[in-house]
């Protein structure tokens, strides 16, 4: 019985391996890569004619408008509500006085679980700037390392909308707010806003934030974008660039190449998560209750300070009805 089983395995798998070997020989002898390369390049050129997708142009324009409203709204709210940022790490807190939660890890993550040293924050601490290389078209040739200074760096969201067919120079899109750095002092008269006006600004800012993220998610379903697996570098296009800017490997004497993966909404529009103080929490958040406090994106926390109501999908991380200190055991 065992001998018959052995013969059957030899007949089946032996024939399969022989067939596989013949197929490999067939493809290896008949396929000429030199002739195949021009065909592939020609197909890529034809593919470029299908972009931009006309149905996505209104979506890209809506993204630019929402981004402008978001920047102006956050700049206005920053004049009325203080924002603090840590001097040694990216931690952010919306309030007059920072918390005492030990989550600071310093510049190079050498000192862990330290108390933050708070300084006054600005717009870039709430809306994290993510920049990328600006390409002339979606199917531009790959950028080499020695070409990294030949291309401008613009916000990744603007580059995505540009490739999607939106015109950032259009008057109705207000292209004056392209830059990642925006002077918050350029907004005048915010000190005299009434509570109702601040609530209106906060609600508009919240809607702009939700619109921006949802529409960027739609664009990423049509237009490819890449993000480095080990750092925050983003590239909008079908393939990443070859600029050696990733410094993840400490043993290298120079910066290495990026490891590209598919980008998501959080990579282009990162939500800066911040601790929030609830009515049942102490005036200053302490480290002992860090497992019970709620959290929220800093943009939405700033909007709640202005009177906006956060959507219910964020209630799970806000812990609205949660405890503020560990429950006492009986």
Automatic annotation (TrEMBL):
Protein name: Uncharacterized protein
Organism this protein belongs to: Bauhinia variegata (Purple orchid tree)
């Amino acid at each position: 019985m065992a001998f018959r089983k052995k013969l059957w395995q030899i007949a089946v798998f032996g024939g399969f391996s022989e067939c596989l070997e013949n197929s490999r020989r067939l493809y290896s002898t008949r396929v000429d890569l030199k002739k195949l390369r021009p065909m592939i390049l020609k197909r890529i050129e034809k593919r470029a004619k299908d972009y931009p997708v006309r149905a996505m142009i209104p979506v890209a324009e809506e993204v630019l408008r929402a981004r402008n409203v978001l920047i102006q709204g956050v700049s206005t709210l920053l004049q009325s509500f203080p924002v603090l940022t840590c001097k040694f790490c990216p931690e952010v807190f919306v309030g007059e006085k920072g918390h005492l939660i030990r989550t600071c890890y310093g510049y190079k993550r050498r000192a862990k679980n330290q108390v933050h040293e708070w300084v006054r924050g600005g717009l870039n601490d709430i809306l994290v700037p993510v920049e990328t290389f600006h390409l002339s078209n979606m199917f531009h040739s790959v950028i080499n390392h020695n070409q990294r200074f030949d291309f401008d760096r613009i916000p990744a969201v603007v580059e995505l909308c540009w490739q999607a067919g939106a015109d950032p120079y259009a008057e109705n899109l207000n292209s004056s707010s392209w830059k990642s750095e925006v002077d918050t002092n350029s907004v005048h008269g915010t000190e005299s806003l009434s509570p109702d006006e601040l609530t209106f600004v906060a609600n508009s800012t919240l809607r702009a934030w939700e619109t921006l993220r949802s529409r960027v998610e739609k664009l990423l379903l049509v237009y490819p974008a890449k993000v480095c697996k080990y750092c925050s570098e983003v590239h909008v296009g079908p393939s990443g660039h070859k600029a050696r800017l990733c410094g993840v490997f400490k043993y290298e004497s120079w910066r290495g190449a990026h490891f590209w993966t598919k980008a998501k909404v959080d990579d282009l529009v990162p939500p800066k998560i911040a601790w929030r103080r609830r009515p049942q929490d102490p005036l200053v958040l302490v480290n002992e209750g860090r497992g019970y406090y709620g959290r929220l994106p800093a943009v939405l926390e700033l909007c709640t300070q202005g009177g906006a109501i956060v959507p219910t999908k964020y209630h799970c991380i806000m812990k609205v009805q949660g405890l503020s200190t560990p429950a006492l055991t009986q």
